[in-house]
Amino acid sequence: xxxxxxxxxxxxxxxxxxxxxxxxxxxxxxxxxxxxxxxxxxxxxxxxxxxxxxxxxxxxxxxxxxxxxxxxxxxxxxxxxxxxxxxxxxxxxxxxxxxxxxxxxxxxxxxxxxxxxxxxxxxxxxxxxxxxxxxxxxxxxxxxxxxxxxxxxxxxxxxxxxxxxxxxxxxxxxxxxxxxxxxxxxxxxxxxxxxxxxxxxxxxxx
Length: 206
What we know:
Layout: E1 4-9, H1 12-20, E2 27-30, E3 45-49, H2 56-64, E4 68-73, E5 84-87, H3 92-112, E6 113-116, E7 119-122, E8 127-130, E9 133-136, H4 139-151, H5 157-165, H6 173-191, E10 198-200, E11 203-205
Parallel strand pairs: 1-2, 1-3, 3-4, 4-5
Antiparallel strand pairs: 6-7, 7-8, 8-9, 10-11
């Protein structure tokens, strides 16, 4: 894993304390978001002291930034526009762990969430969602949708069978047809969408 680019935002004493810990940190630390040399850096993480939320310039930068955000706080339980709270006082071990765990969680969520048309597929929860509606999918249904999205063109029944069922002894092209029929029915009943999975002479597609 590359060294994460992490920016500190907070009062001078907070910033100087973290800078002193640089040799013990598992990430690259930057300490001035107003610096010209930092202006073009895409930071992985912001470590934000709670006092900086009261500074208009700092708050504007924080709200507009899409980096992962850690709120360093001694008293607040509100995370504001941040992803997690780092309770102060803290330790080097806890600081390193918080940064690494937050990035790992982001990577995990990114890999488990897939956008399909106007829908979101959450592979962890086996849930397909759109707006406020959702439906639970089977493992085979998820694998089928992943295949159709990956290939992004009509896929034959035979190709679906080999990729999703891997030619298991109890599967044939009728199995594919049945699963797609059931999946289409789920989508239509829950989202009133009859065109989620389409097909032509070459196969099925999204």
